Amino acid sequence: MKGLLTILLLVLSNTFMTFAWYGHLKFKEMRWFENLGIVSIVLISWGIAFFEYIFQVPANRIGFRENGGPFSLVELKVLQEVITLIVFMAFTFIFFKNESIKANHLIGFFFLVLAVYFIFKK
Fold it and tell me: Across all residues in the chain, what is the average pLDDT?
């Protein structure tokens, strides 16, 4: 149960992180945000990133083996990275339809999944 909760919180965290880091790239397409300066964009992104931390910190505390969770520190990090890629790809396909995935991207993702396999291999 703690493992599933950890993964769910990491997905939520990474969703906010992705919007904070990359969502502002679409601001110029939105009437309310099209003329914002960089300081305003940074402040909005920080506000979004706050919610990332609301989910990320509990995810790590709940999931960490020394706190009674199922994952080592390295496993937590690798999970977070793979979840980040999955969330990022979904975000890209939904909001940046002009971006494309190339063979070298797929090969890189394959090696990341392979990394997960080896990190979790006992």
Answer: 90
How many domains does the chain divide into?
Answer: 1
Contact between residue 84 and residue 14 where contact means Cβ atoms under 8 Å apart:
yes
**Six-digit token pair at 106?**
């797929």
Angle (CA) 108 73 14, round 5° = 55
Whether the per-residue pLDDT at 10 is higher than 80: the answer is yes
Question: How far apart, in whole angstroms, are the C-alpha atoms of residue 19 and residue 24?
Answer: 7
Domain span including residue 20:
2-120
Q: Which of 79, 86, 20 is nearest to 54 (CA)?
A: 20
∠ CA(28), CA(100), CA(107), 5° rounding? 135
